[in-house]
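Q: Could you write out the predicted structure for this multi-component system? I'm mainly interested in how the pieces pack against one another.
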Amino acid sequence: MAITGAIINVVEHDFQNFFRYKWWLVGLISMNLADLFIMAVVYNYMVGAAVTSVYKNYFTFFAPGLAVTGLFASAFMIGREINMEMRREVHHYMLSLPMTRAQLAIGRVLSGGLRGMLYMSPLLLTCFIFVGFPSILQFLAIIAILFLLALGISGLSIAIAVSTTSLEKFITARGLVYYTLFFCSSVFYPLSLIQDLGRDGKFPAILVSFAEINPLSGASDMIRSFLIGYPAFNFNMVLNVLIFSVVFTLSAAFAYIKIIQRK
Amino acid sequence: MRAIWFVSQIALFGLIASRMINMSEVPDYFRYYVGGLSVMTLYSAAMFIGFDLYEEAEHGVFEYMLSLPVSRRQLVLGRSIGGGLRAFIYVGPLIGVSLYVIGAISPLNFLVSLLALFLFAFGVSGMSITLAVIIKSSDRFDVLMGVLDALIVRLSTAMYPIGIVQMANPFYGEIANFNPITYAADMFRWGTGIESMTLANPLLPLMGIIMFFGFFTLVGVVIYDKRIEGGGWQ
């Protein structure tokens, strides 16, 4: 009970911090909604058969991707806070708290993931309203996969945060991770387009493979398969997210414990 | 960070998204997008001057600036031009990358479009300074910049042609028609030969940019003059 209590305390602390950025969140959500209700609506009139023949229009295609984008951006925020704590040496205070290092690390990863889920909820609801509602089982599967993804993203951001010594390095590393994961995925365009470019020799094979195993592709395509029926659901979508989540949750917890003790 | 964003937008998003676009709507979306991207980057870089004002206010540099033997008018003009110029220097190499990707240019048209982009960058800096001194709260300014960036970029021709925007939603089209980013993107594409077929008369966007620059420089001076005194920076 005490173990869970300590973790809950860490989660509560991080949620209070999260709500301190309410204005930042307003800006972020307005950007997400502008992407959906302006950019995607205009793209409806520009996209070719690759999208319209399978998905009704670009808006329908993009709405699930947007929920995943929002989840990524908000779950990643925990890394910025931890990086700031390291620079301002607040982590000494965190280490002095009456809880084990493992509880502290698990609490941080968990809170990052939960915050991502909270932020993403209205975007996912918007997606359901405009694209269609899943069955109960599908809904539970979507939530479970997105939660695993959020944990993995939170872990990834913590791993980057504790491995970088300055804000500039953290922001640069975050930029690299952000844009590679976003643009080499099926969030903005169907995976088949990236594969076609690869086959034509216009896109490096390594990036095509990366897009295929990218957890953002897996999560977006799984939501699409449930709501739109395409691409067909396959177990690899779940597996990619699961592997990403396990690897980064564990490595983040390990890195957090080891690195903050050393500094 | 912005350079990473710019390069990944060209090499990843631009390349893949151009494959998704119907060729009959936009014949060469890749080149079209790269042209718009340069203007989006210039806009973001020029907007940054507002954040500098908050940092100066926080560190007390603002009071020092006010104590200098220059008039308020000279101060705001200098800051607008400085903000625009440094944005231009910063984005210059990225524009060079765009030119390499876009290809052939007409030197005269390009010089005219470059002049328009200079004025655009000064105007954006003036707008950023004006908003910063009106709001006087870094949190609110941060949010407003996020919202403004989301709306002003997406409701412009930076990412899609005006005809498509109007077709998608006439209201969006109306806003895009009176958007400085539209003017700058159209001018840059005209200068690089991308939009020479659709933009027969570059005078209209050029006038739009001059008016935008003039408005935010003049209004900026007046507002700066009125709001600068008395502290109250949060």
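A: Regarding packing and overall arrangement: Residues 72-102 of chain B form the longest helix (31 residues).
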